[in-house]
Amino acid sequence: MEPGGCRGWLGISSRIRASDHRASRSFACSQATFLNGVIEWIDQMISDAGASVEAGPLPAVLADEVQLQRLFQNLIVNAIEFRSEAPPRISVTAAPNGEI
After folding, report:
1. Do 63 and 26 form a contact (C-beta atoms < 8 A)?
2. 12-92 in CATH: which number?
């Protein structure tokens, strides 16, 4: 899977470990690409919980790709772990908020 405008998807766990030892660098990244990668990586956890994850259109952002992966992973894992008895319904969306 090749992210549009980013250096590449190498797997979350190896990238997070590598990020602890390098300076943060930002790139124009497709959030949707990284979100989809996280969903694929934790697919078994999502299935086991009976969860559903939906994503709306997400803009490209200037971000550190490892931190972006970590953000999506933490949001989805926390939604699954800290929930009621009902299967989680997770929706990731974006909306403009002020001027850029």
Report:
1. yes
2. 3.30.565.10
